Amino acid sequence: MRILVVEDEKKVASFIRKGLEEQSYTVDVAHDGVQGEQMACENDYDAIILDVLLPSQDGVTTCRNIRSKKVDTPVLMLTALGDTDAKVRGLDSGADDYLTKPFHFEELLARIRALLRRKSQDKSAVLQVGKLILDPVTRKVERDGTPIHLTTREFALLEYLMRNKGQILSRSYIAQHVWNVSFDMESNVIDVYVKLLRKKIDRDFDKPLIRTIVGAGYVLRDEDEND
Ligand code: CA
Q1: Helix 105-119 and helix 10-22, axial crossing angle in degrees, nearest 10
Q2: Predicted confidence band at 87 (pLDDT cuts at 50, 70, 90)?
Q3: In angstroms, what is the span from residue 9 Cα to ligand 1's centroid?
Q4: Is the backbone of residue 178 left (phi > 0), alpha (psi -120 to 50) or beta?
Q5: 23 three-state secondary structure
């Protein structure tokens, strides 16, 4: 999942980035409102963390502008303690939630997970496709009750495929959301990771869940499910 952090305080921005990356999110940082708005409109993020007090353009205006450009990425706004006015204006500008500074990182993570759930319209915290289960909170994965151990990157790839189950995802799309880079066409990094992931989640089970769509990309689905 790819997240944009718009925060001018370098220390806070790098603290958030580091913490999110440890949870295998992919993170971009913008240091002012104008740059944040531009990045939010140019790239397809899964969530945006937006500070209210920003140089060049405040967070409320930035959020309003993003929404007026029909970008519906979930926005978590960071407001100062006791600034009720900013909270109200933030929510009115199209933000989905707010968090008061200073905050505990665990709470930021929980709110981001809630926003991602809302986006994928899946109300349960745990992701499930067939008998494959991934818990974003405990970071445990199992299939048919058998625990599966994944590396950080494999986990990120699987979470992304599961949140978009049934959708064909191109290699370049996966690269942007899971690696935050655009690999050149010759690169087979995605294929290598899909192969590693297949070995762990599909090989020892009777039904493959990850399918290759020739010329298009990959899709994760359970043929017996109606979605
Ligand atoms: Ca700030």
Answers
A1: 60
A2: confident
A3: 6
A4: alpha
A5: coil
